Amino acid sequence: VKSGACGTVVRNAELKIIEPETGRSLPRNQPGEICIRGSQIMKGYLNDLEATANTIDKDGWLHTGDIGYVDDDDEIFIVDRLKELIKYKGFQVAPAELEGMLLNHPSISDAAVVAMKDEAAGEVPVAFVVRSGGSQISEDEIK
Fold first, then answer.
1. Is the model more confident about 33 or about 114?
2. How many distinct helices (H) and strands (E) make up the chain?
3. Nearest to 21 by CA among 60, 67, 73, 53
4. Do both 74 and 51 map to the same domain?
5. Within a 10 A sphere around the Cβ of 122, how many other Cβ atoms?
6. Are the CB atoms for 61 and 47 separated by under 8 Å?
7. pTM to 2 decimals?
């Protein structure tokens, strides 16, 4: 198993990666929602038809809510959660990607990105950063 990978799909199960908005299957190495189908997958939520319908589609695919991809060696990588995605002007923005960019800056030792409601854009990403020891980096320099 590669570093950062979750392994491969379990025996007797099918896995696909889809574009969350359209349901279109995506190719390898392209992140999307992880869906899984097989006899070992739950059949639904007890006494909650609505939650079941929101999780398992008519073809039996369980929509995990995880954003990930399958690489060329069939290894699965989870990179984010669908519900955590920031909806900015119709685009899905992954907080983890923005955090990764911030953490690559030598003056930043930690970062967290969350959504903030915005009338014009729907949501906008807001970053909270911890400066590296002694750094005087400013908000304008980070933008």
1. 33
2. 3, 8
3. 67
4. yes
5. 14
6. no
7. 0.67
